[in-house]
Amino acid sequence: MTYDVIVIGGGPAGLSGAVALGRALRSVLVIDAGEPRNAPAAGIHNYLTRDNIAPADFRTAAQTEVRRYGGEIVNGRVTGAARDGDLLTVTLADGHPYAARRLLVTTGLTDELPDIPGLREHWGHDLVHCPYCHGYEVRGRAIGIIGSSPMSVHQALMWRQWSDNITLFLHTAPEPDPEQSRQLAARGITVLTEKVAEVLAADGKLTGVRLTDGTVVARDTLVVAPRFMANAEPLPSLGLTATDNDFGSAVTAEPNGRTTVPGVWVAGNVSDQMAQVISAAAAGLAVAAQINAELITEDTERAVAAAR
Which of 186, 188, 190, 221 could pair covalently with 167 via S-S, beta carbons 3.0-4.6 A apart? Predict the structure, then answer.
């Protein structure tokens, strides 16, 4: 079967796009590798009427909606893509091929964390990155910011909104300039210059960090700024790659999601590193509408040609 659209990636952007295309009476296949970025988190936030829903429950409900409107979902990883005449084909790791008139790539991103022993185990609960995603849940705790860029001072000042017990570990971040130092002091933020050597835990719960000079600093929650690296597979085989930027990498596209490769569109974190769940879902809907409009134009041109 040739589908109107194959959606690569079963996150909020991909599933939202699939629902919109199904409601537009398009044949849609979603290919999902089953590795959601937000799986470690206890809940999704800032999604109106869905606040605190578990990511797995959100995903199940979204998949149900896709199927309700005729969409199909296949579990698998796309390992290659190519153009075959007017069609775009994708191949899964098991060798199974699929073809479609258009591709919507919503493969998201991977959070690249600092290389600190014991850090990753706490990702998504005691180790967070976005105050709007997790700030309310860790409000009032002893929070440590692991600095990694010139934005670390801004990060510490932002998190001060949720707690008056903030320590900025400069780690690999540059030292604050005099004005920044005054701002940090005015907000009661402690600044420590030694690098973080190890994250400490007891019974699976984060308890603090050990610095390179041996000092142990108790903390309930740690904050990092990951490198947001686009999951660009299988775009390189189509001639489209992710571009490095100050925050990691992303696939460059027009505001409507159209890429430089004809027939290939993107939505969500693969092209917008800062998108939260609700904005990724909105992007999936918006791009799906653009794809449907392009298909309508193509269908109309074919009908006119056939009627001559």
Answer: 190
Round to whole Å and give the CA distance between 109 and 270. Answer: 6
On the 0-12 / 13-18 / 19+ scale of CB atoms within 10 A, 298 is: middle
- Amino acid letter at 258? R
Per-residue pLDDT tens digits for 20-35: 999 999 999 999 999 9
pTM score above 0.90: yes
Q: Which residues contact 68 (CB under 8 A, 6 or more apart)?
A: 22
Average pLDDT over every residue of 187-207: 97
Tokens 């998201």 belong to 108
Residue 234 CB partners (closer than 8 Å, separation 6+): 8, 78, 79, 80, 81, 90
Identify how many contiguous H helices and E strands the chain contains and give both numbers.
Answer: 6, 19
The residue extents of the domains of the chain are 2-111+227-307, 114-223
Is pLDDT at 247 greater than 90 in this prediction? yes
Tell whether domain 114-223 is in CATH 1.10.10.10: no
CA–chain centroid gap for 305, Å, is 42
pLDDT score of 293:
98
Percentage of residues of the chain with pLDDT beyond 90: 99
Q: Hey, what are 266's tokens? A: 């993107």
CATH domain 2-111+227-307 topology: FAD/NAD(P)-binding domain (3.50.50)
N-to-C CA span, the chain? 28
- Same fold? 2-111+227-307, 114-223: yes
